[in-house]
Amino acid sequence: MSRVVLVTGGARGIGLACARRFAAQGDHVAVTYHSSPPPDDDTLFPIRCDVTSAADVDAAFGAVEEHYGGNVEVLVSNAGITRDLLLLRMKEDDFTEVVDANLTAAYRVCKRAAQGMLRARRGRIVLMSSVVGLLGSAGQANYAASKAGLVGLARSLARELGSRSITVNVVAPGPVATDMTAALGEDRLAELSAAVPLGRMAEPDEIAGVVAFLASPDAAYITGAVVPVDGGLGMGH
């Protein structure tokens, strides 16, 4: 049966790949975006939403419920930002705004999604973390802290919601070939690839495949897991 799926930050990159993967398997898919909508795609329902606003999040869920006539059954919390600076150059706003967009926003969307999932006694939640949240990265204290926090959030929710057949898992990608990383330049991309045991960056579809698996019947007994999709970069963590 087709499910109602919501992917936050689904206008490009990993989020768009996830959305298209769910749509290709017959699900009803909505995506949120902050400034630029996704490419024209009749299979996706786009909604402008600032995930740092509880009112926007509530309105987005209401729009999805009205459009598809049902509650969100699969949530992929993917929206996030970076603001990379060394610690002594990082202003407090640089830290708190990244944590708000990456971690607190995940709390907002999980809380709203859980309402319908608890009533239905089923649901799948996938939070998009990063290998940086496990390894750390110079100049990314704010981003790493926010992505590490998603692990604690997911595992707490997995324990809290598990009795209602709601699973909560984390995907932790390594370097991924997206428009955002392309802007880093060839030299930096070569450095990133060289640090990965598999010697290359991931494609967004490779992340999307793991997300789709965690939302599939085959993953019904997996919850509270952190699944690395990083070419071996973070192995052992």
Task: Give keywords.
single chain, 237 residues, alpha/beta, 7-stranded parallel sheet, 8 helices
Characterization of the model:
The protein has 8 helices and 7 strands, in the order βαββαβαβααβαααβ. With about 240 residues, it is an alpha/beta fold. Strands 3-2-1-4-5-6-7 form a 7-stranded parallel beta sheet, with helices on both faces. β4, α3 (about 90-120) and β5 (about 125-130) form a beta-alpha-beta unit. α1 (about 15-25) crosses α8, α2 runs parallel beside α3 (about 90-120) and α3 (about 90-120) packs parallel to α5 (about 140-160). The longest helix is centred in the middle third of the chain and has 29 residues, at about 90-120. The chain is globular, with a radius of gyration of 17 Å.
In short:
It contains eight helices and seven strands, in the order E-H-E-E-H-E-H-E-H-H-E-H-H-H-E. The chain is 45% helix and 16% strand.
Average pLDDT reading: 95
Helix content: 40-55%
Give the overall form.
Answer: globular
The termini sit apart by 36 Å
Tell me the β content.
15-25%
**Main beta-sheet strand count, sense and barrel state:** 7 strands, parallel
Helix/strand/pairing class, anyone?
alpha/beta
Strand order of the largest sheet: 3-2-1-4-5-6-7
Number of helices: 8
Q: Poorly predicted ranges (pLDDT <50, ≥5 residues)? A: none
Radius of gyration over all CA atoms, rounded: 17 Å
H/E element string? Answer: EHEEHEHEHHEHHHE
Helices, strands, pairings?
Elements: E1 4-7, H1 13-24, E2 28-33, E3 44-48, H2 54-68, E4 74-77, H3 92-120, E5 123-128, H4 132-135, H5 141-161, E6 166-173, H6 179-182, H7 186-195, H8 204-214, E7 226-229
Parallel strand pairs: 1-2, 1-4, 2-3, 4-5, 5-6, 6-7
